[in-house]
Amino acid sequence: MSRKFFVGGNWKLNGDKKSLGELMDTMNAAKVDPNVEVVCGAPSIYLDFVRSKLDAKFGVAAQNCYKVAKGAFTGEISPVMIKDCGVNWVILGHSERRHVFGESDELIGQKTAHALESGLNVIACIGEKLDEREGGITEKVVFAQTKVIADNVKDWSKVVLAYEPVWAIGTGKTASPQQAQEVHDKLRGWLKANVSEAVASSVRIIYGGSVTGATCKELASQKDVDGFLVGGASLKPEIIEIINAKL
Predict the structure, then answer these.
(1) How many other CB atoms sit within 10 Å of the CB of residue 143?
(2) Active site includes 164?
(3) Residue pair 144/128 in contact by the 8 Å Cβ criterion
(4) Which of these is catalytic: 94, 103, 114, 132?
(5) CB of 4 within 8 A of CB of 37?
(6) 203 close to 158: Cβ distance less than 8 angstroms
(7) What is the pTM of this model?
């Protein structure tokens, strides 16, 4: 089964209307591979602005959401609000949410369930820290994180799994194409054993962690790497090169 290549840009806590407006002008004018699904993760305060300005061929994602639709949860946003802005995606479980803001696997699972039930598509993030890789427990960590997500998914066509080794995010260190392929292959094996063969072959597993124009082509050539979740480079014109990595 062919899996449509997927490139997510995670803008994180960056940009203003001027710089993001210029970035969107660049993206809108660029020649991009029509066989690639592109989704931009904008700061929540700019979701409306980004959705109104970005060409309809590009998707937009919130970078986080809460596990309920409304209530006394100061500072949070819900899937129903995200959808009300015309936005169809959310990034959940990013390592910065896990390690900077202390989100547990359990909470990420609950958020995933609620986002999917509300009709959002989810980019669900998993990945090991440096001490976990050096300790030889990468598989144990990413399988445990994947299980909590899988337990909360009914329709896998609405989910993209993003493998992001924490030691490679924003550090300039990229997992080698072989390291990325190895983990993606193992994740597909886990899905085959614990979910189904159909899901294992159809779900898109994308790589994140210092992806650049220089590293994207070789990563994209790996058979189980179905795209990227791009941080810093997604704020630069370089994102076009990354979207076109398969050309």
Answers:
(1) 18
(2) yes
(3) no
(4) 94
(5) yes
(6) no
(7) 0.98
pLDDT per residue as tens, the chain (247 positions):
589 999 999 999 999 999 999 999 999 999 999 999 999 999 999 999 999 999 999 999 999 999 999 999 999 999 999 999 999 999 999 999 999 999 999 999 999 999 999 999 999 999 999 999 999 999 999 999 999 999 999 999 999 999 999 999 888 888 999 999 999 999 999 999 999 999 999 999 999 999 999 999 999 999 999 999 999 999 999 999 999 999 9
Task: Indicate the helix (H) or strand (E) that contains 41.
Answer: strand 36-42
Q: Which residues, in sequence order, are bridge partners of residue 9? A: 40, 230
Whether 99 is a known active-site residue: answer no
| 196 residue type, one letter | S
Identified catalytic residue from 37, 132, 164, 184: 164
Match 């970078």 to its residue by tokens: 63
Residues near 206 by Cβ (< 8 Å), separated by ≥ 6? 6, 7, 8, 123, 160, 161, 162, 163, 225, 226, 227, 228, 229
**How many CA atoms lie less than 13 Å away from 68 in the CB half-sphere?**
5
Cα angle 211, 214, 219; round to 5: 55
